[in-house]
Design a protein that fits this description.
alpha/beta, Rossmann fold, 5-stranded parallel beta sheet, 4-stranded parallel beta sheet, 25 helices, 15 strands, 47% helix, 11% strand, elongated
């Protein structure tokens, strides 16, 4: 291929500003070839700036190689897009090593669009930079407008293509209207701003820093690599992960692009899923800025540390590798917010620094936060103070649950043609049954067992016990009591400290047996229960950590999951659980008077804090 004369080239591309600037970028990139660019034997691959339109560079390439754009033969052969737009009803045809005849220029949005064999066959792969100050002012002069100052033109060069063109095409100077330019790529949102919402205290400090950095990036005062961020949100369903993404987009003045891993998988076989995934990334990676929300994030799969040879291993290897490539190829202005209920299922490479750096666990709202959420959804019609008692009876409810409750209360008030009143919310409260005194004492004994053993074994420096006086019978599950700890740091667990963890988990059950002679089902039945935690630690000790009678490795913590062990190893797991239950049962039987005294204190005050070597006190 040959570049046409500079004068002819400028005449061909100067009629349209976007094409002129694209042509300047192509020529500037080709200067890396030196004098060879005037007689290249082969084709060139140009990777254009993120967010810029391929059609502008395609038109500029026709002018540079002096091809006739109206000639469909030349259009098909001499200048091509690596991944042309999909046309309904026709076969989508990406570039292939088998289809390069006559090619002079290949335009790609990112290097991932160029097959490795095609890139190898090219005379050169050149990366095009955004327009320079000189290019921007040349475009102004060609259209008969006054050039910008170097400082202003430099700030424009860092903005998305549409913002740059808007400033270049403006008949009068845009330099004195910089604030308006700052607002051009912000999205007006009807949804709430993150900082207007109650809750999210775990992640708001991170979000404030992000908003400040993005503002500085928009103004040209900070490089995107220093402003960029990705975050993983985990937590129970209903803790507000989706709402967070929407509210963050509002706070940033960005659009929200929302997807799920399941929507990609539903496209069909592996090739169809990858195509759907790439299409979503293309839509968000246009340089205009977006909060890219990916739900069901754990469903992206994980690559096995030791492939089993099963066909499915290769499937997930390809999916995760392609996802990593797309994630790394995201351009400026894209904030990734991923959400999952199972963070431990996510491939570690996805969460490494430079991709998704931060991880926050969203918890269920406490009593005061529940009152603030109710206040927010009532539009401030009812004060936070008046809602605190109502919120107490909504323990365990998510933000979504609270919103539904307010909507039902508002509907009642509307039907009676009046303003919302506190009684409308009270009428929507779920039915609650009170624990009997005997049940409250059992709850307190159970939690006292956990607390006393945790302090005795040096697992914690203090423990706070809380029990409830009522429960919601129709709920999927209800928490009668809980103990929270100030844990002693254990950065390098030993066999002894792991056994102590198991002992603390089983201490609630043991306390019930020591005091009442029988045990309730409150120690098991769910993921996260006392028995589940104890069993998990014991299995990891035997099957992964090599802390059994014979050191053996059955797999990583993630791989062993709940898969069966050989009979001998299963017997070792059971032996650990038996021994630790007997251990804490003996401890608490000997200290039964202390257990009962602490439990009575808890029943009286409902919340009690104890410290190692100290006295119990009402919290």
């Amino acid at each position: 291929m040959r570049f046409v004369d500079k004068g002819v080239r400028t005449q061909k591309i100067s009629k349209e500003t976007a094409v002129f600037l694209a042509g300047c970028g192509l020529v500037r990139a080709s200067k890396a070839l030196g004098s060879l660019r005037y007689g290249i034997n082969g084709f060139l691959v140009f990777v254009i700036p993120t967010g810029y339109r391929t059609e502008d560079y395609e038109a500029a390439a026709y002018a540079i190689v002096n091809a006739n754009r109206d000639d469909w033969v030349d259009k098909e052969i001499r200048v091509r897009l690596a991944n042309p737009p999909r046309i309904k009803g026709t076969l989508h045809k990406q570039i292939s090593i088998y289809d390069l005849k006559g090619l002079d220029v290949l335009i790609a949005r990112n290097i991932a669009e160029v097959p490795k064999d095609v890139g190898f066959a090219a005379a050169a792969v050149l990366f095009v930079e955004p327009p320079t100050v000189r290019h921007i002012n040349a475009a102004r002069r060609l259209s008969g407008k006054a050039p910008f100052s170097e400082q202003f033109a430099s700030s424009l060069a860092r903005r998305p293509q549409n913002i740059l063109l808007a400033a270049v095409l403006k008949p009068t100077s845009a330099e004195d209207r910089i604030r308006e330019i700052d607002d051009l790529d912000k999205v007006d949102s009807a949804g709430p701003d993150l900082f207007e919402l109650p809750g999210y205290e775990e992640v708001k400090p991170w979000a404030r820093v992000l908003v400040n950095n993005v503002t500085r990036w928009r103004q040209g005062g900070l490089e995107w690599k220093l402003a960029r961020a990705g975050v993983l949100l985990s937590g129970l369903p209903g803790t507000g992960k989706t709402l967070f993404a929407s509210a963050l987009a509002s706070a940033l003045g960005m659009r929200l692009v929302s997807t799920t891993i399941g929507s990609w998988q539903s496209a069909g076989a592996l090739g169809d899923m990858l195509a759907a995934m790439r299409k979503t990334f293309e839509s968000v990676n246009d340089g205009k800025g977006a909060v890219f929300f990916i739900d069901e994030f754990d469903a992206i799969g994980t690559r096995l540390a030791r492939p089993s040879g099963h066909h499915g291993d290769q499937y997930w290897q390809v999916v995760v590798d392609d996802f990593l490539t797309l994630l790394s190829g995201l351009g400026e202005g894209v904030i990734v917010v991923a959400a999952t209920n199972y963070p431990e299922w996510i491939d570690g490479a996805i969460l490494r620094a430079g991709r998704i750096d931060d991880h926050f666990t969203l918890s269920l709202p406490d009593q005061l936060t529940r009152a603030e959420i109710l206040n927010h959804h009532t539009g401030g019609a009812l004060s936070v103070e008046s809602l605190v008692d109502v919120a107490e009876d909504l323990d365990g409810k998510t933000g979504a649950d609270l919103e539904r409750l307010v909507l039902k209360a508002c509907k009642t008030a509307r039907n009676e043609d009046r303003e919302l009143e506190l009684r409308d919310l009270i009428a929507q409260l779920p039915e609650r049954l009170r624990y009997t005194p005997q049940q409250q004492l059992r709850l307190a004994v159970h939690e006292a067992g956990h607390a006393l053993v945790a302090l005795a074994l040096g697992h914690a420096t203090s423990a706070t016990i809380e029990i409830k006086d009522s429960f919601e019978p129709n709920a999927d599950g209800f928490l009668g009591g809980m103990t929270t700890y100030d844990l002693v740091p254990d950065y390098f667990p030993t066999e002894t400290s792991l056994l102590n963890r198991i002992a603390v988990s089983l201490a609630g059950m043991a306390a019930e047996a020591a005091i009442f002679g029988d045990r309730s089902l409150g120690s098991g039945g769910t993921i996260g229960s006392d028995v589940e935690r104890a069993t998990t630690v014991a299995r990891r000790m035997i099957g992964s950590y090599g802390l059994g009678k014979t050191p053996v490795f059955m797999g990583t913590v993630k791989e062993i999951g709940d898969k069966p062990f050989p009979e001998r190893l299963e017997a070792e797991v059971l032996q650990i659980l038996d021994e630790q239950l007997e251990r804490v049962l003996a401890m608490l039987t000997e200290e039964s008077e202390r257990v009962l005294a602490l439990a009575a204190d808890v029943v009286t005050h409902r919340t009690v804090k104890i410290e190692r070597g100290g006295m119990a006190e009402a919290a």
